[in-house]
Amino acid sequence: MPTNAIAAVLRQRGAPYALEPVVLADPRPGQILVRIRACGICHTDVGVQTYEQGLPLPQVLGHEGAGEVLAIGAGVTTVVPGDRVVLSYASCGACANCVDDAPQYCAQFMALNYAGVLPGGEVPMQGADGPVHGAFFGQSSFASHALAYERNTVKVDGDLGWDVLAPFGCGMQTGAGTVYNTLAPSAGQSLAVFGAGSVGLAALMAAADLGCAPLVAIDRNPARLELALQLGATHTLLADGRDLALALREIRADGMAFAVDTTGVAEVIRAGTEALAARGQMAVLAVTPPGTEVAINPNILLGGKALRGAVEGDADPRRFIPWLIGRHRAGRFAHQRLVTTYPFSAINEAVADMRAGRVIKPVLLMD
Ligand SMILES: [Zn+2]
Ligand SMILES: [Zn+2]
Fold this sequence. Notes:
Elements: E1 3-10, E2 18-24, E3 31-40, H1 43-50, E4 59-60, E5 65-72, E6 84-87, H2 96-99, H3 109-113, E7 125-127, E8 130-132, E9 145-149, E10 153-155, H4 162-165, H5 171-183, E11 191-194, H6 198-210, E12 215-219, H7 222-230, E13 235-238, H8 244-251, E14 256-261, H9 266-274, E15 276-284, E16 306-309, H10 317-329, E17 339-343, H11 347-355, E18 361-365
Parallel strand pairs: 11-12, 11-14, 12-13, 14-15, 15-16, 17-18
Antiparallel strand pairs: 1-2, 1-4, 2-7, 3-5, 3-9, 3-18, 5-6, 6-10, 7-8
Bound molecules: zinc ion (ZN) (2 copies).
């Protein structure tokens, strides 16, 4: 029986969301119907809402869903109705990178996460006056119900609140995974995080967990730097136009062993590469506006330095998210301090607060 749901539908680029009734088909083979209890808002949602990126409209966004399994399609073996789950990005499981345990670089990543349609080309939802695109990150969780796949559905146990669980699906996985998986620093090694938003602070908490020192947070917002200190930063730098590479050299004369950029700002990425120590590594993870270019002197990379990109924290969500939840339970990853909750009906207020920097990680509660 098709499912009647309420979804936040984006009908025009730059417009606010409108809560509307939609109908979801029954889960097909490999699909999982989830009653969404909470969904975080990520910068990718804001980017798609704001800028033309080729995604078809009307569409339901949202890619940090958490909730309970209501029904499963044929062939699903790893979850059953009633299971508590976190939803993450989708991958095909069959391409060379998926087989090589790197689903974040799946050959079908764009088709499965950004196409707005199911793999067969079908539009997944029906609204009051026609089809509504979805399957955003294999979920579209700005809704009371979502259809996900087995590979992006992560079973979680225990009693953590939905607002705490939802951000694991993208933002926390991306920031923390870039440190735990991509850079993998050791205790006592230096690390700088550019940007103290939700992803940057997730990276910072992971680096603090691993014992990085000095551990430097850089941001334009003094209040966020204050929070970074509480979350484990040993130093902060206010990005007020000063030469950041020089300022980092004043903290660590021989340069930083690791750097993470979450800003996507060309001059910040350049400063990060200039601040690296010999054999230092910098990871970039932000999607930048088209046309962004970073000018660096290649000599900067001599000395065994590396500048690399990472998607979704180089994490396989079904393995990494339960592990990261374990760090949270152990008190080593206190990301609940980043969360501000809103009722689902206040989605536009939540987006406005996020854009204005008034909140770090807004999470919508669907009840
Ligand atoms: Zn794949
Ligand atoms: Zn995201």
